[in-house]
Design goal:
- Two copies of one chain form a homodimer.
- In chain A, the strands form two sheets. Chain A has a six-stranded parallel sheet with strand order 7-8-6-9-10-11, with helices on both faces. A five-stranded parallel sheet of chain A has the order 2-1-3-4-5, sandwiched between helices.
- In chain A, strand 4, helix 4 and strand 5 form a beta-alpha-beta unit.
- By secondary structure, the first copy, chain A, is α/β, with parallel strands linked by helices.
- In chain A, helix 1 runs parallel beside helix 6, helix 3 packs parallel to helix 4 and helix 7 crosses helix 8.
- Chain A has two domains: 115 residues, 3-Layer(aba) Sandwich (Rossmann fold), CATH 3.40.50.720; 189 residues, 3-Layer(aba) Sandwich (Rossmann fold), CATH 3.40.50.300.
- Helices cover 32% and strands 17% of the residues of chain A.
């Protein structure tokens, strides 16, 4: 995918609740300077906390792309959203969408893009020609977030690592593998939407050869212990050829997300299997930290939990949101 | 995918060598009674060893589907093949293809199928709505072939197991996960072509609940130790929820297929990782045999190799082609 151009106008349509705008909120949280305003239709129940602006205002302010970072029920595109999308194209903006439906599959949108010479980005639909993975060595360093489960803070942790490393003047890039991350990075590949044969190849494409002291910080997906998505996680691990791994965990989770019969793996067991499989493509792979989402615990209990893990695993253990990730970055040189 | 109807007419076009007809040959080897003839164009360099018949002869003989089980260079469809395909559709046959290109993407073919009310099967392109895997228990038993590498006899072994079990009157089905297997079974899902998020879900769909004494014999793909395709293999392993595993191996292979830097895994190591990961979804998973393609060894060396493995692992060790798989089936009850 070519790079999306920012700044962004955040289109919320008439999404029914704040959760439906979770992707849009993530973009505003991590790239506030790119998000010049939100466009909401009558009945919209979400609010990103940024100013409401019109398409004309957005163009005047220099917006390059209107972002549809929302989930609508049923996956179809309501007629009155289509009108707003073609209006934005006619006004000179590109459109980027995280919807399941492809923008170009809607005739009116495709026609408007063509007549205005604008680009349509469907972050859920990889369009590149992806080769199969080769597992070959390449210069540059890579860090990958792996998890005990889905949705345990892998994106948050890797974005926090990138921010901290950039602040220290290190050479670093965040490599997005999911839709929210792609909007935040402006590029990336939605790994779970790639055809199965090309998972590791897509990650190799995303993390090419670089300067020996450059770090690619790769957003992880799923878990080797998730019965639905472990194949994606393994392909990601092999393709990333990671030098450094960070384990992400949510300690109050009672079972694997979406599959109530499956308990979370033991942390040690999870780290062991990730290391054993990572070493197929990188013998030097090692864990450099554990990132725990302690928001479900009191501050006291959260701190105690991190201290306990730190002693048990002899690794920096952080809550990326609450304590920051500096102690993990200290391990990367 | 709905079921392809047999008998088949095997269309070879003007494929340039015998290897290009490998898929077609596999179908003839395993389902000779379904393959009523071959249709070759001028310049065809392959021969399936069955009689050459015309489209009219095929229809008269009761053929229901013309199968394009060949690889053409470049992946495109030559104009003079298109004419033969529309001719077959006009004569009342369905078309099944293993080409990369989708039949329905060729206007003349789509139009001919529509006007004749015929079906087009693209075995490389799964069309079903596949749910994500759930990892839930279901009645019926399942056996999965896993490998030290790609192309080490997983399809051959599982087809031989199905044949032997059927001959003994056991309740059994072969579950195809690759294109040749799909033509042989008449249905199946090309697992490596499924979108990554749905690998295990596709396998669950392929091996649904069944009688407690029924065996689904699942064709494996790739290897957990192949840096290009391990994600597919892991999703397959989790989705199959296999009770029984058979390890497939080719002892003269000097490196993993397509990646010269990667040596083959040690057999013990390969079995250990397969067992450890299989047990996420089925705690009872166990190996019931090893199937070795000994065609690269002398009979004497092959026999010695099998005897050595049998002693080392205390499991039936066979060459599915040369010794048959009876000793493995003895372990399945």
């Amino acid at each position: 995918m070519s790079e999306m151009k920012h700044p962004y106008l955040m289109f919320l349509g008439d999404v029914g609740d704040q959760l439906g705008a979770k992707t849009a909120q993530g973009i505003v949280d991590w790239r506030p300077e790119w998000c010049l305003g939100q466009l909401r239709l009558d009945g919209c129940q979400a609010d990103l906390g940024i100013k409401d602006i019109s398409i004309d205002d957005a163009v005047a302010a220099g917006v390059k792309t209107m972002v549809i970072g929302i989930v609508n029920s049923g996956g179809f595109l309501p007629e009155h959203w289509i009108d707003k999308i073609t209006e934005a194209l006619d006004a000179g903006m590109d459109i980027a969408s995280g919807l399941h439906i492809r923008l170009a599959d809607v005739d009116a949108i495709r026609d408007a893009a063509t007549r205005n010479g604008r680009s349509l980005f469907d972050v859920r639909h990889p369009t590149q020609d992806i080769p199969t993975g080769k597992g070959t060595d390449r210069p540059g360093k890579r860090l990958l977030a792996v998890g005990t489960d889905c949705s345990v803070g892998k994106m948050y942790t890797t974005l926090a690592l990138e921010k901290e490393m950039r602040a220290r003047g290190m050479k670093v890039d965040f490599c997005a593998t999911g839709q929210t991350g792609i909007f935040i990075a402006g590029n990336g590949i939605s790994i779970d939407a790639v055809v199965a044969d090309f998972i590791s190849g897509a990650v190799e494409m995303l993390t090419p050869a670089n300067d020996p002291d450059h770090w690619d910080i790769v957003e992880g997906q799923g878990s080797l212990f998730h019965p639905s998505f472990a194949g994606v996680s393994l392909g990601l691990l092999h393709g990333a050829r990671a030098d450094a791994l960070v384990l992400c965990h949510e300690p109050t989770r009672t079972h694997m997300r979406g599959v109530p019969e499956y308990p979370l793996p033991d942390l040690k067991e999870c780290m062991d299997l990730n290391l054993a499989t990572a070493r197929l493509t990188n013998k030097e792979a090692r864990f450099v930290g554990i990132s725990v989402n302690t928001s479900g615990l009191s501050t006291e209990k959260g701190d105690a939990y991190l201290a306990e893990l730190e002693q048990k695993f002899d690794l920096p253990c952080v809550d990326a949101y609450r304590t920051g990730v500096a102690s993990i970055v200290d391990k990367l040189s």
